[in-house]
Amino acid sequence: MVFEKDLNLDATELRLGLPGSSEESLRISNKRALPDMNDDSGVAAAKKCDQETAPPTKAQVVGWPPIRSYRKNSLQTKKTEAETSGMYVKVSMDGAPYLRKIDLKVYKGYPELFKALEDMFKFKVGKYSEREGYNGSEFVPTYEDKDGDWMLAGDVPWEMFINACKRLRIVRGSEARGLGCVV
Amino acid sequence: MQKEMAYSFPDEVLKHVFSFIQSDKDRNAVSLVCKSWYEIERWCRRKVFIGNCYAVSPRMVIRRFPEVRSIELKGKPHFADFNLVPDGWGGYVLQWIAEMAGAYPWLGEIRLKRMVVTDESLELIAKSFKNFKVLVLFSCEGFSTDGLAAIAASCKNLRELDLRESEVDDLSGHWLAQFPETCTSLVSLNISCLGSDEVSFSALERLVDRCPNLRSLQLNRAVTLDKIANILRRAPQLVDFGTGNYAAELQPDVFSNLAGAFSSCKELKSLSGFWDVVPAYLPALYSICPRLTSLNLSYATIQSPDLIKLVSHCPRLQRLLVLDYVEDSGLEELASSCKDLQELRVFPSDPFGVEPNVSLTEQGLVAVSLGCPKLQSVLYFCRRMSNAALVTIAQNCPNLTRFRLCIIEPKTPDYLTLDPLDAGFGAIVEHCKDLRRLSLSGLLTDHVFEYIGTYGKKLEMLSVAFAGDSDLGLHHVLSGCESLRKLEIRDCPFGDKALLANAAKLETMRSLWMSSCAVSFGACKLLGQKMPKLNVEVIDETEPPDSRPESYPVDKLYIYRSVAGPRFDMPPFVWSMDEAVKILH
What we know:
The complex is a heterodimer. Chain A has helices at 9-12, 45-48, 69-85, 110-121, 158-164; strands at residues 3-4, 60-61, 88-93, 100-103, 127-129, 133-135, 139-144, 150-152, 167-172. By secondary structure, chain A is an alpha+beta fold. Chain A has a domain at 88-177: Ubiquitin-like (UB roll) (Roll), CATH 3.10.20. In chain B, the strands form 2 sheets. Chain B has a 21-stranded mixed β-sheet. In chain B, strands 5-7 form a two-stranded parallel sheet. At the A-B interface, β2 and α3 of A face loops of B.
């Protein structure tokens, strides 16, 4: 078997964010974070369950998937172009078998962002109140911040949010209870 | 009386009759009828196809066919496309060119695939063949724009220059200006692989201007959208066009100029290129979409809604290449709009991503199989599959001739049942009786090979990765697939037994590739000893295979039939198992 294992997790982990931004591993802090957020459900569940705590690493196999370098190179140049000019974050939703990538820079504030998410994943965000979080909706938008904690989206000012947000996840309302907010 | 009739035609008559026989198979059959037909046929064979450049030597070809005008050669094994064949492995064309330069002064066409072509080779072509017309370098490497300049300058009647998917050392765009003003004969020009920003555009424009027969033109990525209109207006007779990048700020005058230029091309049937697409410019194509039969959007990072809009304007589409941004919804639209579809290729936009980034699943392919009854050729990258879906596809498309499925994560089972995908692929080979090419993926046991050996009677090429349990799998294929010509295997637990038991089969095939399997060095040596008409080559970049025990598995193995004996251009990391060569090595 020809597997190229790279112990440099940072290099193999596929992350989004501006180049040069430091890749911090999960830290314990006194923010109340949502439990089990790294236990992703969905398509790759079986494979991922023995990697619950570590970020997903991809052992790249030579020549697999079978794509010509010509084509691979063409995709690479496009990727780096896209990632340097925007603030791309991955968006996932519980139960949806796919992820999306969005450019946070494109939106002016939470209303536009949530509208876009609603369109993309076909759900309703519901009314937000500071005390009670999101009311009257089954799904709730959360985000992973630079410290690796999962927070309710909508708490902090927009500018602060787009700089702190590393990825978005739309979770079922029931799981979002007790979600941390910045103190 | 009967006997005399057979020889009663003078040679010239037979020659004339044979000139209508173009297919290699038929020509080969003709040459076996009797000695005089063999002689007449060999003197009038004009076209030779050599599927493996090491299967025969240039001298042998020249000796048998002294009047060849067109030659096609293939070099490296297919898995070289995926970086499994180390650099320097071989496939050099120079010796062929050198020998043909003396023997075939009238050679007019050279077509090469996966070969190493140096500037020296190109310069030799340019100066040796006065009637040179066609040069196709498909997936080749080793040359620069200097070599191209030599071709452009010397080949006065060049009709076709096609560099598709080759790796060219792009030193300067000025080679295009080397085409003399008197060159007006170009019919086809494909420079899509060229990297540099400095393709001499004015030289290109002038060239296009003076070649009224130009039918096929593929530009490279550096050519900007605003230049397209200029080119098209000079060549409204184009049938096949490849854009450069298709992005620019939306400006109404640029748009209308572009749309007008496209609409003036009444013969345009095939489009490609489309790097960096700005969707707002796609409607400029709408006027020609109803005539389009082939569309290659496999570099275009446009999303499903834009793809759907475009595809719905192309009811005559027969061939579509696209990225998985098309998603299931786009493929459903394709299935309802394009009833003539024969070939579909869906490439992954994020092949190394751990999670799916788009909503493309087996459903998209099922939809196309249902809606497009003429579907013959499929290449599909996805992240999940089920036996049920494969069975449905097989039943909907019994006319499939090529089916290549790549489930991105190796050994992925049926996502619904968690079973291996044996039954699904089994259905494909069982229902698609004309299947010639098959690529497998996902979780597969020896059972799938049993199906393939039983039903895959017309199968010519099989690609296998991360599959099977034991030698039995390989044995099923080698003993059952009567038409098998090319077999390529990686990362499968196949060892010595099946290979040695089916050694004779290997002489009926073009080649066998096995890497990261369990074939021992000892078995390779045995095969090399017992089968003199096979070249058994072991590839190992780390250390010589005989520095380890004989039972140790080899890293990579390439076996091919040859009448030329072992080759002389092997690099240090390739070992021939031929007895004679071993002594000299």
